[in-house]
Amino acid sequence: MAATAPAPVELVAPRPSWRAWVAVGAVLFGAFISTLTGRLSSFGLADIRGALHAGFDEGAWITTAQTVGQMLVTPVAVWASGVYGAKRVLTWGAVQFTLVSGLLPFCTSIEPFLALQFLSGIGSGTFIPLTLGVVLRSLPQRMWAYGIAVYGLNLELSLNISASLEAWYVDNWDWRFIFWQNVPLGIAMLACLHVGFGAQVAPKRWSWPKPFGVLTVGLGLALVYAGLDQGNRLDWFGSGIVAGLLLAGAILLAGALLLGLLHPSAWFDLAAAIRWPMPLLLLNICVLRLTILSTAYLIPQFLVTVRGFRTFEVGQALLWIAGPQLITAPIVAVLLLRLQSRWIACAGLVAIAGACFIVAHGMTPQWGPEQFLPTQLLQALGQSLALSGIVYTGLHYMKPDAAPTFGAMLQTARLLGGEAGLAFVVTFVRQREQHASATIGQHVAVGDAAVSQRLSEYGSLLAGHDPSGTTGARSLALLARSVRQAADTQSVIDGFLVIGLIAFLALVLMIVLGTAPSAAEPAGTVPHGK
């Protein structure tokens, strides 16, 4: 029987046409736009709040509204791509995203702005879940590694250029260009979609599922994300809003999981999603997203609160990290083709953990962008290796037919994992800062010889520049500022340390995973007639 079994064949064309390359470029460009827009809104939050005359609590929902829309539409996009085709879904999403981006800056109050942000998220939320499916369907198996490497490049590049881009818009043009930039970007994506998907195969026309299935998953994910995003501001379970969001989301997701087990559907391959080692790989995607977003939070946090840098100066520091990614992406692709992807992911996690431990060991309140640059270059390389390695390993365990499922799982792990990780790190750093401030304050007592000497030194420095006679009060203010800077620095050090430990645990998980199946087996091929 083995001798007469038909040879496996690839589900993709051996030689991609130029249209296929344009289609792949369109979805990768969409993934880049989606991530970049979210980061720009985060960095420009203060300017947007000011333009809308919104308070802190109201403005906190600006970024939440967009990502909630992305979470809600993720399962809908996967299902709709099987019913109507990826081209129609992506085109609809790009049109909506482009139109809403053009309208957002015209809002003068927070309520319509939040509604449009939600619609913008629904439009851009269709991009990332369908990216992997289009890459796998459009390219031959030997080219998948390059598509995955560019996918990882998109993530790093968009995260690290957003601060500089937002600051440049605000300083030279206007905050509105945070959103208006998406109009030409969206039009360019639409043009690529129109040209690139001309030769795409028609969808399978899956039957319409029970509405409860698709909508329950999306609504559950959206509610959980909103609870995580607002938890740190509202004191977690001390807030009825946060508790209600998390509980309602968990109940909806549990109901959707039960429905999927009892009534399997074609739009989402639940068996493939829970088959070992997919849960472990998705957990590592969550961990990796934690390391990416947390360091993107910790460095600006330190440079702004301790060193007093402006957003533009912080962006320049992060921009130096983004540039080398253009070089590392093709190198990562070659490594994926020549080495086991599991070991590439392990090498990336080692680099991430090592960079975090180096910062935690040597960081001082005098550090600036130059001191962060070597370790962040190492971490950026590690994140590219780890993300590409983990995703490529996942492809070895899934057939191309399950690519939409994998794409939806990946998008969910990215957003929920990143938000859960960021919420954890923000809460952890805040608590460590309070602990460090209290500990340091115990050694700053009135009458202490060291304290008196420090106040005397401050007074001597201020004596020639303070004719108003408030030298004593200003000296106390400078001492309090020094204590606050030391506490902030210690909290950031602790943050890097805990991220390094989490990356090390992820490394252990990848090591115990074992060798993945050959890429020629389940990932890229199926027997004839199946």
TrEMBL record:
It comes from the Bacteria. The keyword Phosphoprotein does not apply. It is found in: Membrane. Residues 23-518 form the Major facilitator superfamily (MFS) profile domain. It is a multi-pass membrane protein. InterPro entries: MFS, MFS_dom, MFS_trans_sf. Keywords: Membrane, Transmembrane, Transmembrane helix, Transport. Gene3D superfamilies: MFS general substrate transporter like domains. The chain crosses the membrane at residues 20-40, 89-106, 112-136, 143-165, 177-199, 211-228, 240-259, 280-299, 319-337, 344-364, 491-513. SUPFAM superfamilies: MFS general substrate transporter (SSF103473). PROSITE patterns: MFS (PS50850). The keyword Isomerase does not apply. This is MFS transporter. It comes from Sphingomonas albertensis.
